[in-house]
Write a structure and sequence with these properties.
There is one protein chain. 26% of the residues lie in helices and 28% in strands. With 214 residues, the protein is of the alpha+beta class. A seven-stranded mixed beta sheet has the order 1-2-3-4-5-7-6, sandwiched between helices. Helix 1 (37-53) crosses helix 2. The protein is globular.
Amino acid sequence: MKKDLDPSEPSEPAQLPLPAPPPLPALSFRRADENDLSELVRLRDSAARWHISRGIDQWKPGALGEDHFRKRLAAGEVWIASLGPDGPVAGAWELWWADPAAWGTRPGDAGHVHRLMTDRATAPPGTGRLLLAEAERRVAATGRSLCRLDCLSDNRRLRAYYAAAGYTAVGEVSAQDAGAGPLYVITLLEKRLPAVRDAGPAPVPTRAEPPTTH
């Protein structure tokens, strides 16, 4: 026999849907200048500590100071990414137009991405891939057809990350962190770029992409 409900008895509260997370701001990109030197050092040291915490023996905190980034500003380009034009810094990278120490003397048909760094306190998942895509657009916009980078040869996760981004391993060389410390082997990777006429608006990070190392 069906039991009648007593309207005086409290009922279970209705399960309301959770509110959607606020939309992420589009990344803004700008050339770094002398005013960004301390921030670049902070990003690099933070990334080095993150490497060490995960057993990656490559970058060392304090190995690169403001003088390094000042030289890179003069010799190539350094870029800053932020969450919106006035938002917090999300990451940075160096763009070199030649890298003879790793790649030897080659025609000027490539840009070299170095020190691709994200601020893990502020950067949403997927930011590293967007920084790399922006670096590639910048290289292509100069008329160069290749984007090159390197990573530790025994870092399988990072090599897979770059392979998923379209990079192919083309060799290995020995290297040191800032020219000092123990030698380690790095894998050289490159990607052929399509011609770019209009880079378009900056992409928006996606929450669905898992965190990656870079």
